[in-house]
Every structure is written in C-alpha cells, then in structure tokens.
Amino acid sequence: MSRRMKTLTIAAIAAVALVLVARSIAVGQSDRWYPSRWGADDQRGAANRITPAKVLEAKALITKGAIYQLGRVYEAGMPMFGSRHYSIRIPQAFEMPGRNEGVFHDDIISGELGQIGTQFDGLGHLGIGDLFYNGNRRREFAKPEGLTKLGIENVGPIVTRGVLVDVARFKGVEQLPPTYEITAADLTGALQRQRTEIGAGDVVLIHTGWGSLWMKDNAKFVATAPGIGVAAAQLLVNEEVVLVGSDNWGVEVMPNPDAELSAPVHQLLLARNGIYLHENLATEGLARDNVYEFVYVFAPLRLKGATGSPGNPIALR
Amino acid sequence: MSRRMKTLTIAAIAAVALVLVARSIAVGQSDRWYPSRWGADDQRGAANRITPAKVLEAKALITKGAIYQLGRVYEAGMPMFGSRHYSIRIPQAFEMPGRNEGVFHDDIISGELGQIGTQFDGLGHLGIGDLFYNGNRRREFAKPEGLTKLGIENVGPIVTRGVLVDVARFKGVEQLPPTYEITAADLTGALQRQRTEIGAGDVVLIHTGWGSLWMKDNAKFVATAPGIGVAAAQLLVNEEVVLVGSDNWGVEVMPNPDAELSAPVHQLLLARNGIYLHENLATEGLARDNVYEFVYVFAPLRLKGATGSPGNPIALR
Amino acid sequence: MSRRMKTLTIAAIAAVALVLVARSIAVGQSDRWYPSRWGADDQRGAANRITPAKVLEAKALITKGAIYQLGRVYEAGMPMFGSRHYSIRIPQAFEMPGRNEGVFHDDIISGELGQIGTQFDGLGHLGIGDLFYNGNRRREFAKPEGLTKLGIENVGPIVTRGVLVDVARFKGVEQLPPTYEITAADLTGALQRQRTEIGAGDVVLIHTGWGSLWMKDNAKFVATAPGIGVAAAQLLVNEEVVLVGSDNWGVEVMPNPDAELSAPVHQLLLARNGIYLHENLATEGLARDNVYEFVYVFAPLRLKGATGSPGNPIALR
Amino acid sequence: MSRRMKTLTIAAIAAVALVLVARSIAVGQSDRWYPSRWGADDQRGAANRITPAKVLEAKALITKGAIYQLGRVYEAGMPMFGSRHYSIRIPQAFEMPGRNEGVFHDDIISGELGQIGTQFDGLGHLGIGDLFYNGNRRREFAKPEGLTKLGIENVGPIVTRGVLVDVARFKGVEQLPPTYEITAADLTGALQRQRTEIGAGDVVLIHTGWGSLWMKDNAKFVATAPGIGVAAAQLLVNEEVVLVGSDNWGVEVMPNPDAELSAPVHQLLLARNGIYLHENLATEGLARDNVYEFVYVFAPLRLKGATGSPGNPIALR
After folding, report:
1. Number of Cβ atoms within 10 Å of the Cβ of A57
2. DSSP 3-state assignment of B242?
3. Which residues pair with B293 in a beta bridge?
4. Residue B95: enclosing H or E segment and its boundaries?
5. Which chain D residue shows the shortest CA-CA distance from A145?
6. Interface chains of chain C (3 or more CB pairs under 8 Å)
7. Of A44, C27, D108, nearest in space to B112 by CA
8. pLDDT at position A14, please?
9. How far is A241 from A262, CA to CA, in rounded Å?
10. Rounded distance, CA A171 to CA A268, Å?
11. Cα distance between residue C131 and residue B146, in whole Å
12. What is the ipTM score, two decimals?
C-alpha cells in the first residue's frame, strides 16, 4: 500500500470509529459491555455459572422422583417464526442381507433446527449491529459452514436449580393478554405469591399461559406474545441467572411496546450478559402442579457452529 | 367381493401364514415375543422402567456435582453409516427494523438426524422382516410423513442409574480390536473387576475404546467395530435394562461373526425387548475417571414419528 | 429351504396370484397393460416417440424466434400439495484468498423437488397398487436412496411438436370452474375451434385458466382443479402423445367426479401408457397469443432415481 | 441524527470512498465496469443477447434432428466443491383412498442445488469484494431468504447458436493436463482447426477432456482443472458471447497460475461482463462426433433469489 493510501485508510477508520461511538450513545449503549466478566476469550457466557456446587444444591430439590418434559413435539404444522421450516420424511426401508431379515428405517429432516419449536438460543444467534456477546464482530465469526465463535457446541450441559415464575397466576388469569409486557414488579409480585426466591446460577422459566395456544390457535400464537420487557429482564440479569425460558416464542413481549425496538431483551440477555433464552417451553405441567422449584436439565445438541439447539429440557423434583 | 374371490383370499392367506411360520422357525424365532410385557398397545418399551423410585435411587449417586457430556460434536466430516448425510449452513443475517439494530442468524440443517452422530435408536428404527416392537407391522405404521406408531416422541425422558462397563480395561487394552465380539463372560468379568452390579431399570454403557478413532481415523471407525454379541445382549435383556449404549457406531459387533446375520443385537434389544440403543457415545471421560455408576439423563427430541433422536446425554455423579 | 417349505411357498404364491388377478378384474383392469410396447425392459415410455424426424418436424414451427417460458417461479409460499415443502436460503458469503477479493454465494435448497411447482412426473411416481409402468413392482425398485428403475434420469430430452388446447376459450370462459371435468368432446371441440390437430409424438398442453390463481389465491388453487377426465385422457393415449401438461396442479380433474377414484388419469397415462405429465405450467402466454403449435423443449434434470423433475420448459415458435 | 453526527458520517463516507478507489486501482480495476451496457437496472446481463434473430439463426443449424444431452447425472458420490452436499431419498409410498389403488412416491432432495453437478452460474454467485454485476453491492441484495437482485429467475431461456471449441483435440490429447491454462491462442488455434467462428450472442463450450474423470476419478477431478485463463476469457468477452461452458468444475483453470488470484475468470465474466458460466457439462458426445456448431438450449430453473441453477442443457443439430 502506498503512503497516501495508508493515510487515507487511517483517516477513514478514525472517522468511522467516531460515527460508531456517536451512534452507540444515541441508542443508549454508552456503557462498555465487553469484554465479558468471564474474560475476553469466553464463549460460554452464563453457562459458566453451572458449578458442582449448583449441581449439588439442585440435587436436594429432587424429592419425589417426578420428571416434567418441557419440550414440545416437533411436527408439521407447528407454529414457526417467519419463513422457517421443518420437514421430516421416512425413506423407504433399508433391507439388510442375512437370514435374520433385518430391516430398518431412517428419518430425513431439514429445517432451521436451532430456531424452531422448543429452542435454546445460543450466543451467536442475535446481536447489536455487528456486535455479539463479548464484543465478537459478526463478520468475523459468521461463516457459511458454521459460526467460528460462539457456536452452540461451547455451551455444555446445564444442570441447576430452576424456578418457575407463574405470572399468569399472579395476574389472576389463565393466559396473559397479547402483547402484555411483564414488568419487574410482576416478577417480584409473582415470586412473593409463590414464596420463591431467585439465586445466582438459577434458570428462570416464566409461565404466561400463552403456550396453551400451541397447536390450538397457531396463527394467534405467532402473531404476538406476552412476555418480559427490558426492565424485567434487567432484574433477572441482576440476579445473575443462567437462562430465561418461557412458554411463548420469544421469551420477551412481542412486539415491543416501543415500536422502534426489535427484540431488545434478546440483546440485553444474549449479547450484553451472555444469558441464554429457551423458547416455546411446555411449562403448563409445572404451573398446574404448583412446582416452583426443580432441577432444570438441558444439554444443547453439540451442533458445531450452530446458533441454537432443539431439545427436550426436563424438570426434576 | 364375490364368494369365489373370498375363498381364494382365505386360501392365500392361510398358505402365506404357513410359510411365515415355517420361516420363523427356520431362523430360530419360534418363540412368541409379542405382545410386549407392557401390553399390546405399548409404544414405550423399556422406558416404562423409568419410575420415580429409579429417579430417587439415581439421585443418591450424585455426590460430587460433576457432569460428563456423553454426546459427540455434530460436524461436517464426522463418521457416518452408508450414505447418510449432515449439512449445516448459516444463512445471511436477518436485520430487524428499529433503532436498536437487532441482527440475528439462524442455522439450516439437513440430514438423517435421528441416525447420525450420537444417536438414540427408537423402537421404530429396526425390525425383523415386517415385524417391529410389540408385533407392529412395518407396512402399517411406516408412513412417509412419519411413523404412526413407535415414534420417538413416545419415549419420554430417561433419568436412571447408569453403569459403565469398561470392557477395554478388563481386557487390558486401550481399544478392543476390530470385529471383537464382547461375550457375556466379558461383561461379567468387567463388572466383577469394577465391583459393579447391574439392576433392573439401569442404563448400561459399554466402553470399547473404539470411540478414540472418532474424527481421528474415521475410515477405520466405520469399517468395522468391536461390540457386544447376541449372548452379551441377552444377559442385559435378562437384567431388564432400559438402554444399552457404547462408544461405537452400532453398539453391537460389526460385522457379526456369523456372516448370515445383520444387526441381530438390534433385533433382540429393540424389536423383541423394547430396549433402546445409544450409539457413538463419548464414554472416554467416564472410563478415564473410573466412574462406573452415575445418573444417566437423556430426553429424546420429540420429533413426531421419527425413528431416533440426536442428542447430548449426560452422566451426573 | 426344506421341500415342505418350498411346497408351501409355491402354494402360497399361486393363491396370491389368483387373488390378484381376481382383484384386477374387479377394478376394471382385466386388460394386460404390460409389458410395454417398447419392450419389457423399457424405462423411457413415450419418450421413445422423440425421434430425429419429430425434431425436424418441430423445427419447421419456429418462424418468429419467440420463446415462451412455461415454468413458474419456485418460491416460498407457492401452492403445494399436501405437506410437501420448498426452502431456499443464501448462506453467509464465502471469501476466497487472493488479492482479487473473490467472494461467492451458494444457495441451499430442500424439498420434494421433483414434485413441487412446475413439475414433470416420471414413470416411477405413481402406480396401481404395487404395479408401475411396464409392470415393475414397487417393492422391487423403490429403494431409500432412489428408484432403481424408472428413475427420471432415463427419460432424456423432449424436443417435439407441442400443441396448446385452449379449453377455457372453447368454453367461453377465462377459467374453467372448480372440479370441471374436461371431456373428450371438449378436447375435440377446442381443437376444431383452433383448427389444430394432434399427432403421434406430440406434447399436448391443456389451458384451463386455473393457473391465473397461482400466487393470487393459492388456497383456491390447491383445493380443487378443473382438468381432463379419464375419457379425455384416453383420447390423448389413442393419439400416441408423449406428454400431457396443464396449468393446474394435477393435469387431471381434482377430485375425480367418481369419489371412489383417486388420480385415475395419472394411472392411465403414467402406469399403463408411459405418457408423462407436466403440472403447474404457465400456459397463459401461449393462450394470450393464440399460439397453438410450437416446439416444446424440456430436458428433465438427471436426478438419479428420482420420481420427477423440476424445470422450466419452453415453447419456441 | 444530530448535525454533528451527520458531519461525521459524511466525512467517514468520503474517506471510505477514497480508500476504495485507491484499492481498486491497486488491483488493476481502475476501469469503470458499471453500470452495465444494458443499463443500471439490468439484472440479465448477456442473456439480453438472446433475440428472435439469434433463435432463427440457430434454427438453421438443426439439420439432423439429433439431441445431445449436456447435463450429467446428479447422484450420491458425484464430485463436489468444498463441503457442498447432495442428498436424495425416496420416502415411504403415499397410498391414496379409492378403489383404484393409487400409490405414489415423492423424492426429497437437499443440497446447494444451484452449485453442484452440472451448474449454471448466475450473476449473483460471485463478485469482486462487495461488488457484483452492474455494481450491485452484496450487502444490499444478499438476503437470507434469497438474493433480492440478480436472482437466477431473471435470466430467462437461452436458445442460441452454440460452438464447441475442442481444445484437447487441438493440443493433440484426450485430456488437457491438470492446471493447464488455456490461452487465447489455444482458442484461436482450435477454432481455426475446426473452421469455426464465434459470433456475438453465441454460447461457447470448451472441451478439455477433463470431464472423462467424472465418476471415474473424482478425487483427481476436483483437485485441479485445466481451463481457460484470463486472456482467453477476455477474448470471449470481446466476442460478446452469452455464456461460457466447459467439462470441468470451474470453466477456468484451477488453481490460477497466479497464486494470488482466485477465480479471476469468474469475476471477469460474471461481475464485469454479465456473461454466464456453465460448469460440469458433458461435452464428450459433441467432441466425439465433431459437432462444433449446434443450437444450445437451456432455461435455468426459476428458483427465486438463487445464485445458480442445476439443469440438463441440450445441443440440437
């Protein structure tokens, strides 16, 4: 590169940097949210809060030997966001040689598998402009064959105390109304009613009742959703949770009451704080049985470079 | 139907039935293995052995709060059986409207997802001619859009005592030789060396050392495999286990020493006894740490009508 | 096999054969429609009618140098039969090394690609019970990794005289009514109005006007369709055509006026006569311009073992 | 935006623009190659050269009624670039209701369908940094659900005079050696030997003999390739052709003799001149029969927003 080009380059970079800083201030992101508290190289975020001590603490919650299945069935026709798809087919049977007449079936599946049905959002799923968790720049790690950083294979199993916050019950309804924004006061009130507290390293699941629309009124289910707002999410951040889940499709209220914001809770949790989301959970069994404390167990599929994971998380008590 | 046709039909059916019976005897399947012990309508097989009592029994094995990840990474280039495939791509980023600059990635995945990598074989995967678990006839439940019976969504979570049987260690090797058939005496001997016993409702994982070839020498890994033979499998059937897993690609020895048999252990476990298989497990961590007893936790993805499930099972101790 | 078993087997086979024959008569299929006129090993059916002479005959129809595109756009949201799907995504860009800054995109696509959108039905697509074209038995050639006979790769290019039969115009409407069965008299009448004749080795396209619903009213488009009935199809069989196409999704009337019949025209054309179908064609341009004779050109994608082919057939005049 | 931010933004953009211009000069791209000769809004490039006059000119080349199939079979195990994949499965048969025993098969296919096997590269496939054909900026049109500009659906059918240039024959070999760069003199010499000329609006296919490795020695086939270099490509640009095809996987020599260049011929043809590429063609039939002039017919599948198209182009003579 010539000296002149170098000078021009430096000038351009400096100017761009100034613009970026100005813009950051404009959208209220003046704070420096990276590197993460787990170091500049960390790719696991709040999964670091899973420790042997948390596992042992959780173990004590198993008193009945009951298992709740929190994952929904993946099937044709299930509600999906935008143009995502899910397809399953059973190919013709394979016939094996031999006198024992072995015959087997496979299944062939395609879809946005980390982002449909019951889904666990990884740290590479959603960011703020070009910036993702720990200040990783999208253009540097989002590659065609998989994310080269923040892939779901880095998360590891989550076994910890789980808390259900039954906001619907607290509000005295079966199902929160469409677009209802759950406030920090709602969370606090619901926890008081339940006499439950949230601790560092916990998983928090929000029961809105919206999940009762699943496969019953899919159009209504995906059109909007009640869910936590930014203030409620910030409360959970302050409590140092590992993951926030819900029985709706985005955990957070959709659309956001501020029409100029899209998915700000995702940004607050995933990008700024490394806290995971678990969407489309079947929380109705826990709510029905007033189970507010349990062991939450989920190990994301180790899909190298993926943004999320399908799965069937469970609650043990 | 005319009377003549009816007569012909009856004659034909009778003749076919005789042939089938004769053939069954010829391949040593004279015994009547269905309906299942859990009833003629059962679709869950040995998963019925998971009870609150087993969960509570398993709980006591958690003493250190340690978690072992038993699932391997799903990635391009991993060993696969036959012409199965796995593909993942990260589409262009989606940019959301709004001043908060939300940007997200999905992943798009295709493959025989229930039958690649770490895989849990369901009861609809493999049968004996037209007969599958509980006497279900393949042609009646194997439909293009999914199995209408024995789909993986019926299994439910498995949380129970897990036992690692380190056969490689018992034989004094790092890795059992190719095509080595693990005998019932090998299992018994390895259990004695470990001072471990197997009980009803347990999950049994066989460590062969073959898994150390994974992503190191894939061609060798898939060409053959050491694994349990029919007699060893029968021992596990007699012990009333829930699932048999291993660090090889088929649990059983491949190919079978009897060249006229293909996957007879699959038939014995899945079809005749409703016992699941878990293949391509990462058992090396347990073996390294001499962990022979643990809580095994796995909840198959609820893929409606699927023959198997990918996943990331864990061991807790 | 023992002698006794052999005897039983023979008896059973004989009895089954008798039943099959009786049943065949019962459903009006007493005629022996195989082996095909092109021999017992033929896999190409009416594509055998494409000869150099037909190509040269067709050539003379090119007088203006005009090209009509008969294929519709494959896109998200297009009408599809049953639970078939189509998905396309553009992965993140691949960046190549080197000072010339090469950057490229791929597309990743999944779906029932031979049977969605503009689709060419091959001879392995549809049969009568277990019998397909040329008496091939489904269970013998329908294998998981592709058809081992009658795959679309056998067809070869089709370049021949094409005839548009504008039945909508003949009936004085823009669009035939839902479930309208086109009769042989309709075909004859429409051809007379147009002063067009059909000859051996021709391709015949039926304009119903139903295609104007495409991406306008997809629900109506797929719910039913006007199209040819069995008698009209038989007329085209008698004329020894190569292919019958239309601007609806099944060429034939859907549902069939006889509620006990599903897709009998498919059976008559594909299975019994080796004549191809081309569905969801964009015939409106030809109809608008009163183009009743043209060169039809289509070369199915050579998808080994596939049942059909997507594509973009053209008409030249 | 505040006034200060606006000023900063303008300064940044100006500085960046200067850097880009300087860089462009540095890599020899000082010429202004856009807007295209077909206008700033054009998305079809050299397909604009297909006119009724060219169709009629081509028609005269049909003298024998012979059809050559130029597309290869798509099948498991075919050579593919990088980690692209192709999968086909035949699902279980669908059984239709009714007394006529309708039974049908679909196929389910996944892959980078525009960029595997015989493939037609569209104008959205490959660019120079952020710039594609007609100066379109990648980040503006490359969207997850498809390209919003330059998608393959814009191309339309190509029916024109085709010319085979048998460079292998000219060099006196069955197959050009690996990494052999075809020069402009090679093209000129081969054309002279054949007594063929290239004209505006023609399609030019280069026979290298490399295609004889297809499904014979796939590893060798994809490792490198003989093909045209930049100078030969420039000659074809000057001749105003529509498309350049070949029996190798990239049309151009791979790798480029200049180790600092990746796919420069793609950039010259697609981005700068709107000329298409057709890769992995079966040219051996034409070469064997000394067919140097013919009608080339190909209509890309109208895959909305796709970067390329699979297909089965044909040559008529």
Report:
1. 17
2. coil
3. B163
4. strand B94-95
5. D83
6. A, B, D
7. D108
8. 46
9. 23
10. 25
11. 24
12. 0.91
Contact A144 B110 (CB under 8 A): no
Give the C-alpha separation, A182 to A253, whole Å: 7
Residues of chain D contacting residue C89, judged by C-beta atoms under 8 Å apart: 144-146
Q: Count of A–C CB contacts within 8 Å?
A: 29
Q: Supply the pLDDT for residue B25.
A: 38
Nearest to D76 among C27, C97, C145 (CB): C145
In the predicted structure, residue C25 carries a pLDDT above the cut 50: no
In angstroms, the CA C33 to CA C13 distance is 21
Query: Looking at per-residue confidence, does A27 or B137 come out higher?
Result: B137
Is B142 close to D92, i.e. CB distance below 8 A? yes
Q: pLDDT tens for chain B, 317 residues: list them.
A: 455 545 444 444 444 444 443 344 334 445 789 999 999 999 999 999 999 999 999 999 999 999 999 999 999 999 999 999 999 999 999 999 999 999 999 999 999 999 999 999 999 999 999 999 999 999 999 999 999 999 999 999 999 999 999 999 999 999 999 999 999 999 999 999 999 999 999 999 999 999 999 999 999 999 999 999 999 999 999 999 999 999 999 999 999 999 999 999 999 999 999 999 999 999 999 999 999 999 999 999 999 999 999 999 999 99
Residue B225's SS3 state is strand
Q: What are phi and psi of B182, to 5 degrees?
A: -75, 125
pTM (2 decimals)? 0.91
Could you tell me if C142 and C124 are in contact, meaning their C-beta atoms sit under 8 angstroms apart? yes
**Given this model, what pLDDT does residue D3 score?**
52
Tokens standing for residue C200: 């051996």
CB C252 within 8 A of CB C260: no
C278 close to C120: Cβ distance less than 8 angstroms: yes
Question: Among D76, D83, D93, whose Cβ lies nearest the Cβ of B76?
Answer: D83
Nearest Cα residue in chain C from A87: C85
Measured between beta carbons, the chain C residues lying within 8 angstroms of A111 are: 87
Radius of gyration of chain A (CA): 22
Q: What's the mean pLDDT when you consider all of chain D?
A: 93
- For the record, the structure tokens of B109 come out as 């995945």
Inter-residue contact D42 to A38 (CB < 8 Å): no
Helices B230-238, B184-194: axis angle to 10 degrees equals 60
Look up residue B119 and give its two tokens: 């895989």
Q: Which residues in B lie closer than 8 A to residue D85 (C-beta atoms)?
A: 85, 87
Asked if residue C170 has pLDDT above 50, the reply is yes
Query: What pairing do the DSSP bridges indicate for beta strands C243-246 and C142-143?
Result: unpaired
> Is the pLDDT score of C24 beyond 60?
no
**Rounded distance between C-alpha atoms, residue C9 and residue C3, angstroms:** 10
DSSP chain D: --HHHHHHHHHHHHHHHHHHHHHHHHTT--S---SBTTBTT---GGGGG--HHHHHHHHTT-SS--EEE-PPPB-TT---STT--EEEE-BPPEE--STT-EEE---EEEE-GGGSSSEEE-TTSEEETTB-GGG-BHHHHEETTEESSS-GGGT--EEEEEEEEEHHHHTT-SSPPTT-EE-HHHHHHHHHHHT----TT-EEEEE-SGGGGTTTSHHHHHH-B-EE-HHHHHHHHHTT-SEEEESSSSSB-BS-SSTT-SSHHHIIIIIIH--EEEES---HHHHHTT--EEEEEE----BTT-SEEE---EEE-
Whole-number pLDDT of residue C31: 74
Question: Which one-letter amino acid corresponds to residue C100?
Answer: N
Nearest CA distance, B266 vs chain D (angstrom): 22
What's the alpha-carbon Rg for chain B, to the nearest Å?
22
* Structure confidence at residue C19 as a pLDDT band (50, 70, 90): very low
The one-letter amino acid code at C262 reads: S
Range D149-176 average pLDDT = 98
Tell me the HSE value of D96 on the side-chain side, using a 13 A CA sphere: 24
